[in-house]
Amino acid sequence: MNEFAIKKWWKFSLATDLAINRMQSNLDDFAYPTRNTKLVAVATEMSRAPITISGNLLGSFINEKVKQGDAASGKQELTPAINVSWQPWRAVPLSLRSFYKRTFRMPTFNDLYYTIVGTTTLRPEYSNQYNIGAKYSEYFLPLKLGINLQADAYINKVQDKIIAIPANNLFRWSMINLGAVSQRNRHPYIIYPCVKGKIALNGTLNYSYQEAINKTNGQRSHGNLIPYAPKHSGSATLQCSYHSWGINYSFIYTGERYMLPENDPQNYLMPWYTHDLALTQKLAFKRTCFVTAVEVNNLFNQYYDVVINYPMPGRNYLVKLSFNL
Predict the structure, then answer these.
(1) What pLDDT, on a 0 to 100 scale, did the predictor assign at position 169?
(2) What pLDDT sits at residue 116?
């Protein structure tokens, strides 16, 4: 990577990467693919208070070859991105941000060549992403309380989205392209650190509302949510420490979903959530710092499937010891 300063407020950079990926297997008639990827990125940033503007252009040059069968087509793509951030008032700790990004994603080797699941006719995934957001951060010294509020709204329009769906049965899946998918997302986020004497509290709240809709014309599932894409999801964490002791709590929620492109009642999946709890202690011996932890995951032993018929662990326990030399 090379970076140049055109002005004090204007930077320019150029970076290149080369990657070679191979896949091995002991299966009969396996493709043994090799992918050569060359990436070239040009980026610039201009920052003059209260506005910062940055942008980049990424060139992706991908070629593939196989020992047996047909290889996926090579691709040469240019994908731009631009970001703008602005602090309207110096005295108010409020900043606004926005970006546009065009992305390109090649199917993975598993998507293309894995036995039964993969298909070499799978097309790359393209998306146009639009985002607008705001951040407010302030520390209230008399209360010894800090707060960090963030909120974002974005639209993601995807062409040829790659998804996995069951084929002949639930144990054999196949990869397909959905011609067009529209995603709309609202994402508020809160961090609230607090220190009272020798007790320190820190927590987060995170909520996401997402509409990932199949917009492919001519399909029965047109206008339906795509598989395994919940409208509502969120998480919460709370950490409390006193001297060398600490206790951590986390909550994860995933709303109702559908397991197939058709949002029929028989494809409906119930929401699921988990509670996790951990107790930690820090110990020091000479110059070595030890951290011991006892965790209880899925505290209330809820049954849930992230993917249908693949149940996740019930209540489980974990004891950890880590140290720095």
Answers:
(1) 62
(2) 67
Confidence check: pLDDT of 189 > 70? yes
3-state SS, residue 111: helix
Q: Which of 52, 200, 54, 31 is nearest to 119 (CA)?
A: 31
Assess whether 62 and 145 both reside in one domain: no
| Number of domains composing the chain | 2
Give the C-alpha separation, 69 to 30, whole Å: 8
pLDDT confidence of residue 247: 95
103 in a domain, yes or no? no
Alpha helices in the chain (DSSP H): 109-113
Question: Tokens in use for 215?
Answer: 């917009």
277 closest CA partner among 263, 298, 306, 305:
298
Report how far apart the first and last C-alpha atoms of the chain are (Å, whole number): 33
Range of the domain at 51: 1-96
What is the C-alpha separation between 57 and 43, in angstroms, rounded? 6
Is 295 in the same domain as 212?
yes
Evaluate whether 288 touches 324 at the Cβ level (below 8 Å): yes
Residue 233 has pLDDT above 80, yes or no: yes
**DSSP-based three-state secondary structure for 198:** coil
Classify residue 86 as left (phi > 0), alpha (psi -120 to 50) or beta. beta
The DSSP secondary structure of 233-251, one letter per residue, reads EEEEEEEEEETTEEEEEEE
- Is there a single domain that holds both residue 181 and residue 80? no
pLDDT tens per residue, range 75-120: 999 999 999 999 999 889 999 999 999 999 999 998 888 766 678 8
CA-closest candidate to residue 176, choices 97, 118, 228: 118
Q: Identify the pLDDT of residue 196.
A: 61
Amino acid at 281: Q
| 310: nearest Cα among 175, 171, 174, 110 | 171
CA 63 – CA 220 distance, rounded (Å):
35
Give the list of residues 6+ apart from residue 4 with CB closer than 8 angstroms, or none.
11, 12, 13
Radius of gyration of the chain (CA): 24
